[in-house]
Amino acid sequence: MRIRRLLRTALLLLALHAAAASAAERLPALDVDLAATTVSGVSSGGYMAVQFHVAHSAMVRGVGAIAAGPYYCAQGSVFAARYNCTDPGTWTPLPPAQALAMTTAALAAGSLIDPTRDLAGSRVWLFHGTRDRTVAAPVVEALRAFYLHFVPAANIVLVRDVPAGHGMITLDAGGACAATASPFINDCDYDAAGRMLEHLLGPLALPTAAPSGRLVAFAQGEFADGDAFAIGMADAGYAYVPRACEAERCRVHVAFHGCRQNAESVGEQFVREAGYNRWADANGLVMLYPQTVARRGWGGRGGRWSFIVNPRGCWDWWGYTGSQYHTRNGAQIRAVRAMLDRLAAPRAR
Q: At a CB cut-off of 8 Å and minimum separation 6, what does 197 contact?
């Protein structure tokens, strides 16, 4: 009986995978301006946004991070990610910002990331809620200290006076402001997406009353050597394309969800309710929402097997995809960069 149940479960998973693959389309080529790329993220997504920014600072002009810490904080250790870089203590301290800055410079010297001089013109927007008990305030302060080694202080904003829990902070969507609960979208009467984008991009038009563009579910596998699952990414990701961007050249912003906030966990709530799309409509901004998938050890697609332990569907900021996860060679960083290259490709004639 147990074997039959396992077989039924396996068949169901295969059916769901096939349904997801068939529902997804190709990410469109929209001739976006990659030189104006910005990124942001929540929690593990914040760590991922920082990694992507540092790895590709010649292209990424700004980063927003909610409840996240400095680049290469975990240094390849899941233990450090869980303790030193989330809730540091006497025996599990944060790595010194100066040491991480020196490591960053060494990675740049080895051409594993873009030259650190490219960070100098960046805009940085950071947030920590006063009710956040998941990521401690010193972690976000350490991220600011890290960036101060490369970015002028005038270009860095740290918001730390909103009584918010752990999640994406919005004007009017989600649960209670102080909560830390799925879908990790908190109604705080505070438009984090808007404040962030205004700092990263400069003066913006007011957001539209409601999004009117199209939300595209696209196949992520082609950006991951044909197997997104093998690098902890879902079969489908999302892009939001404002109507104007179907014909005009637009900028692009990448938003990385947090742990347990991917589509597998919360459906389309993050991609629809995080607060970015209304600003995107009004300001010619294509939104890219790449997606992770939870992994609990061995698993495979199409006869290809891989081993990843990431049960909460976090982005890789401690090395579950390999030792170069934080560099341009990182599997997830390469996949997202390939997505951006597709968005920047000329439109089909």
A: 38, 64, 204, 253, 276, 279, 283, 285
